[in-house]
């Protein structure tokens, strides 16, 4: 009887110890899980705080002025950068390439947008050429024009007034209406420089924006004009030049000869600019920024 009681007591003690051990294990597991969950929450909160701080670390305003051809890119950069940095305001004005470079040199603007390479004179005054994208220049006509391809020589002859009727180029007997940009335009400067016809062009219309050129060419039978590649739409027809289509691949491989840089000029090197301006260039040259360049129809600098 005593033996049986002893066995029963031992069993009860063993059961109690097992239950106690199980309870301790469950408690330890629960505590560990809670600690892990808390640590994960703290880490997530820290990441959110870091992201918030990163987005808010820059504040102030940036001013850009210059090329109307760069309007689409400049607006996209400004909008995206302000989304990333809510305390930053980016303002862009579109006054032409030469005016933009002049504004940055005079201190009226932080960045001068130029749709051409900077001149030696501009560089000698302190302007630094920061190429952020590459643009192709498309030569366009109205959609009813039967002429589809032009050589470089023919393009020169048209813009210098040596050829004045489309019949001389295999088309219908229709006067050629030569449309271009105003003096000081980066697009005009690049176009004339590439063709080596500076100060020789015979324009019927000199217009002050890319959009105006597109509209005039689209609505004028026999018109010809030049615009940035990224603004092309079905209201006009783009010529192939020497059999080569105006597209990114052909511009990158050099087979399409009408192309130019998009420059965001600064007064001095980027490293000499304010932290805010440096931050903008860091974004533009980042992978995300270069994707933005592609999204607006331009070619990356890489």
Break the fold down into its secondary structure elements and pairings:
Blueprint: H1 2-56, E1 60-66, H2 71-84, E2 88-94, H3 97-105, E3 111-114, H4 120-124, E4 127-128, E5 131-141, E6 149-150, H5 152-159, E7 177-181, H6 186-195, E8 205-207, H7 210-219, E9 223-228, E10 237-238, E11 240-241, H8 248-252, E12 259-267, H9 275-285, H10 287-295
Helix pairs in contact: 9-10
Structure description:
It is built from ten helices and twelve strands. It has about 300 residues and is of the alpha/beta class. It folds into two domains: about 60-135 and about 260-295, Periplasmic binding protein-like II (D-Maltodextrin-Binding Protein, domain 2), CATH 3.40.190.10; about 135-260, D-Maltodextrin-Binding Protein, domain 2 (3-Layer(aba) Sandwich), CATH 3.40.190.10. The strands form two sheets. Strands 1, 2, 3, 4, 5, 7, 8, 9, 10 and 12 form a ten-stranded mixed beta sheet that branches. It has a two-stranded parallel sheet with strand order 6-11. Helix 9 (about 275-285) packs across helix 10. The longest helix has about 55 residues, at about 1-55. The chain is elongated, with a radius of gyration of 33 Å. The protein starts with a helix and ends in a 7-residue tail after the last helix. Residues about 1-35 and about 40-55 have low confidence and may be disordered.
